[in-house]
Write a structure and sequence with these properties.
Chains A, B: One of its GO terms (biological process) is L-leucine biosynthetic process. Chains A, B: Belongs to the isocitrate and isopropylmalate dehydrogenases family. LeuB type 1 subfamily. The structure is a homodimer of 363-residue chains. The first copy, chain A, has 363 residues and is α/β, with parallel strands linked by helices. Chain A contains twelve helices and 14 strands. The first copy, chain A, folds into two domains: 209 residues, Isopropylmalate Dehydrogenase (3-Layer(aba) Sandwich); 128 residues, Isopropylmalate Dehydrogenase, CATH 3.40.718.10. Chain A starts with a strand and ends with a helix. The interface between A and B is large, with 61 and 61 residues. Strand 7 of chain A pairs antiparallel with strand 7 of chain B, so a sheet runs across the interface. Bound molecules: 3-isopropylmalic acid (2 copies). One 3-isopropylmalic acid sits at the interface of chains B and A. One 3-isopropylmalic acid (IPM) sits at the interface of chains B and A.
Chain lengths: 363, 363
């Protein structure tokens, strides 16, 4: 049975390696569960630039608009540091987010039991941690105009613009409230309303949306205090909603705190397409890790869990997602560890593909 | 001997309580060391709003421009949450920073040995930690125009502008390199040059300034990766330089990680005045903590250490600063702890003024 179409964009660095393991999982679903995906693969980021002189061709962009889900590895690397801003690898990813209008970026920060020792935080601070950060992804200072480097008098000035409309805030707030309803019904919104007018509007709109979700306990926190509280006692949070830039920093910090960075997936969702499925892109939270690329050291789990999120959110295959996640828990409980997770006693080191083997076996 | 003039602005919340202890220390210097300060005191923040309808009067602003150093407690509190943006307590502090042109905000993130257990991080990750974050304080999105909430079509839009000129980046970078020269000669600059043009200019200018400091090892990091690395292994850093908004989040996170938040001072420095002393404002990193205000629970040490920084940077009394810092170490080693630092075995709880007593005794 064909369940839908999937565009795979491995990207740069460890992207292709971890994605190769996802492909094996996808094949397994076709062979063993009769769930076949109409898979295509293309280039993004530095890889696309190397071939086409642009980090995302129009053809790839068009294709991404048509599929049920995009699965992305990672983009970027020092090789591209000196490229002009307009063709940097990141622009490919940002164009996908923007043109697909993927406004809600779901970033779970979850501590896997078997890995709690890996956190730089004390075990009781992180064990069992499970929070969800909802980051606005298509607006704010990432995309606001005017932007650029301009001459002014005798010198240059660098300008970027934070811009949020009420409707942009409204829709991402609704996504966050919906998620909170399915979880512990607690939502914390973070901005700098004490310093930024865009933060004031943010707080106002979120407070307004809250009226439609009377069961959810809403709180507000300045983003700097939020950064502190995430470091101090992250378990105080359930769902966090915040803007594009604060979300970038806060979700990365939260992911690192779990000790499970190589394990964390993300989903970026837009509005429903004609077939009712939301526009969607899935990617691991970790970056392209150019320093370990091509050495079989990368942990494919974050990317595989991103595929699990696709099963759940795009293909309505929640049970299959559960199955895949359970297989991964199993493998971790058995002590299999990629290079990023070594250090404990009594674990078995495995390579990127060794981890893929183990997960397939557990499936 | 009169060593210079000091304007004390206790502000809101626990500000007045912790400042009362500083005044006792100042008196001690006059009586026992013949070092007298020409001290005046005034209102800022909510306290100023309550009396004058503005978080900082012009008269206070003028006075701040004339003194050798300003010592501030903290501003803000829920009581003022619904005030119009233009008269919020924070505007008083921001006006001081801007009009005094205090472009370099020095925020040490230091872990006090006696308090390493207080961190949510594992002891080996934080014990002995000593980094310095230099945050640009007078520009960026805190002050850029246009800003505000505007009508656009049928809805409102919140706008803030990140703006950095080359000379603004140059001068704060130089402060950071100077500090690095006096420390471990390592500087890490953080921005989002992969996403923001203002970050590209930031990176370019810092790289240019580095030519004047060939002994300092300069690195660059994206701010989200910086947030991660601060959480993972903060000891990799010596001095960090970053912009106003990133500095707000990153320095707060770093301060919290040390476990010594109630202990951390900060200095905000501008250009030299006629007498050769820099324009300067000193304040604790912690906020106004309205929840514990007036209960004798506040830790006055961050504010007292801010005065120690004033001794060092404004009054050229480095040895006296050392003496004061040593007295504080002594008191901690003796096991005296304010309410924020209780929990260990064998320590002696003290009130805010009890901590002041102990420090005076150690002096
Ligand atoms: C690669 C980069 C453009 C991106 C961002 O800043 O959003 C990344 O840090 C992320 O968080 O997905
Ligand atoms: C009180 C507030 C305006 C201030 C800031 O955002 O700069 C505070 O968070 C700080 O870091 O000093």
């Amino acid at each position: 049975m064909s369940v839908g179409s999937l565009l795979i964009l491995p990207g740069d660095g460890i992207g292709p390696e971890v994605m190769a393991e996802v492909r094996r999982i996808i094949d397994w679903y076709g062979e063993k569960r009769d769930l076949t995906f109409d898979v295509s693969e293309d280039l993004v980021g530095g890889a696309a630039y190397d071939k086409h002189g642009t980090p995302l061709t129009d053809a790839t962009m068009d294709h991404a608009q048509e599929v049920d889900a995009v699965l992305l590895g990672a983009v970027g690397g020092p090789k591209y540091d000196d490229l002009d801003f307009s063709v940097k690898p990141e622009r490919g990813l940002l164009r996908l987010r923007k043109e697909m209008d993927l406004f809600a970026n779901l970033r779970p920060a979850q501590c896997f039991d078997a890995l709690a020792d890996f956190s730089s935080l004390k075990k009781d601070v992180v064990a069992g941690l499970d929070i969800m950060i909802v980051r606005e992804l298509t607006s704010g200072i990432y995309f606001g105009e005017p932007r650029g480097i301009f001459e002014e008098g005798n010198e240059r000035v660098g300008i970027n613009t934070q811009r949020y409309t009420e409707s942009e805030i409204d829709r991402v707030a609704r996504s966050a409230f919906e998620l909170a309803m399915k979880r512990d019904k607690k939502l914390c919104s973070m901005e700098k309303a004490n310093v930024m007018e865009s933060g004031i509007l943010w707080r106002e709109v979120v407070t307004e949306v809250a009226k439609d979700y009377p069961e959810v306990e809403l709180s507000h926190m300045y983003a700097d205090a939020g950064a502190m509280q995430l470091c101090r006692w992250p378990k105080q949070f359930d769902v966090i909603v915040t803007d594009n830039l604060f979300g970038d920093l806060l979700s990365d910090a939260a992911a690192m705190l779990t000790g499970s960075l190589g394990m964390l997936p993300s989903a970026s969702l837009g509005t429903p397409m004609e077939n009712g499925r939301p526009k969607a892109l899935y990617e691991p939270v970790h970056g392209s890790a150019p320093d370990i690329a091509g050495q079989g050291k990368a942990n494919p789990i974050a990317c595989i869990l991103s595929f699990a999120m696709a099963l759940r959110y795009s293909f309505d295959l929640g049970e299959e997602a559960d199955r895949l996640e359970a297989a991964i828990e199993q493998v971790l409980a058995d002590g299999k560890r990629t290079a990023d997770l070594l250090g404990e006693e009594g674990v078995t080191p495995v390579s990127t593909s060794g981890m893929g083997d183990a997960i397939l076996e557990a499936l």
